[in-house]
Amino acid sequence: MRHYEIVLLIHPDQSEQVPAMLERYKGLITASGGVVHRVEDWGRRQMAYLIQKLAKAHYLCLNIEVSPATLAEIETGFRFNDAVLRHLTVVKSKAETTPSVMMKSVEREEARKAPQQEAA
After folding, report:
1. Exposure winner among 60, 63, 102, 104, fewest CB in 10 A?
2. pLDDT tens digits for 30-51?
């Protein structure tokens, strides 16, 4: 089994279905004997360029350990899911379990916005 990092860009109108999609993909991974090491929901973010006339997307990051056959099955699911705008799979040398740099910036943004929302 190999370690992978998968980043998904989900259509912003499908943000409500993200938890169900995550459970489906986690089920595929664990059913085949794989392990989910880290799941990060980065939320809706601005994209660098338009994809299908959209400026924003819902970002997800998964760090998993699966067999290549299971990975191929998961990526086929991404291709046929209209909600997935783009996906990127990167082979990692070891399991990543600490928060990513992107997740740390998301947490900083949320911490900065929380006092502003309380004041309003």
Report:
1. 104
2. 999 999 999 999 989 999 999 9
Specify the residue for token string 């089994």.
Answer: 1
Q: What is the signed CA dihedral for 21, 75, 34, 15, rounded to 10 degrees?
A: -20
Going through the chain in order, the beta strands assigned E by DSSP cover 2-10, 35-51, 54-66, 84-92
Which sign, positive or negative, has the C-alpha torsion 43, 21, 72, 77?
A: negative
Q: pLDDT at residue 120 above 70?
A: no
Q: Is the pLDDT reported for residue 97 higher than 70?
A: yes
pLDDT of residue 101: 81
pTM for this predicted structure: 0.86
**In 3-state terms, what secondary structure has residue 27?**
helix
DSSP class of residue 1 equals -
Going by C-alpha positions, the residue among 70, 63, 72 that lies closest to residue 1 is 70
Contact 47, 54 (CB under 8 A): yes
Hey, how many other C-beta atoms are within 10 angstroms of the C-beta on 63?
Answer: 22
